[in-house]
Amino acid sequence: MTRVERRLRKHGEFVRAQRSGRRVGTPHFTLLVAAQPPPPRPARLGLVVGRRVGSAVRRNRVKRLCRECFRGLPELLPTGVDLVVIAREGAPELGLAEVRAEWRAVETLLKKRAAEAVARAAGPDHPPAPVAPGAPAAPAPGRPRNR
């Protein structure tokens, strides 16, 4: 039996997730949810913990906490989705329970963003995701947006 890799490790995987991913913010983390390239695999985790967060010891502690939280919440994301976690200042002061609470607080939004990312990656033959009432409509394909 082969082991399924549950972590993003290559630069290209991070770049793809950051370009096509949907953002969800918490007080100490920015979570990016992106569809995986085919074939779908179990959800994978990528971590970005910059020097601004603290010393190497503190950064590694944040990474360990995030990996443990991801392992402990298998229902957080569906199959075929990558999660990139960007740690913000203040993250090293958190314990596992606080990290888990922050991620649980945005769980429904994460699942919604995951569905949007998978639908977007499915292509034009897939029906568009429903738009919330009062939300601005998406620009027509092929036309530049005014900025």
Determine and state the CATH class: Alpha Beta
Strand order of the largest sheet: 1-2-4-3
| Biggest sheet architecture | 4 strands, mixed
Tally of separate domains:
1
Structural class: alpha+beta
What is the beta-strand fraction?
Answer: 15-25%
The average pLDDT is 86
Number of helices: 4
Regions with little confidence, pLDDT below 50 for 5+ residues: none
Q: Percent of residues in helical segments? A: 25-40%
Architecture, according to CATH? 2-Layer Sandwich
CATH structural fold name: Ribosomal Protein S5, domain 2
Tell how many strands the DSSP assignment holds: 4
Helix-strand layout with pairing:
Layout: H1 11-20, E1 22-25, E2 29-35, E3 44-48, H2 56-72, E4 81-87, H3 96-105, H4 107-122
Parallel strand pairs: 3-4
Antiparallel strand pairs: 1-2, 2-4
Summarize, please.
The protein is an alpha+beta fold and 147 residues long. It contains four helices and four strands, in the order H-E-E-E-H-E-H-H. It has one domain (11-117): Ribosomal Protein S5, domain 2 (2-Layer Sandwich).
Structure characterization notes:
- The protein contains four helices and four strands, in the order H-E-E-E-H-E-H-H.
- The protein has 147 residues and is α+β, with helices and mostly antiparallel strands.
- A four-stranded mixed β-sheet has the order 1-2-4-3, sandwiched between helices.
- It is globular and about 45 Å long.
- The protein has a single domain (11-117), classed as Ribosomal Protein S5, domain 2, CATH 3.30.230.
- The model has no long low-confidence stretch (mean pLDDT 86).
- A hairpin with a 3-residue loop joins strand 1 (22-25) and strand 2 (29-35).
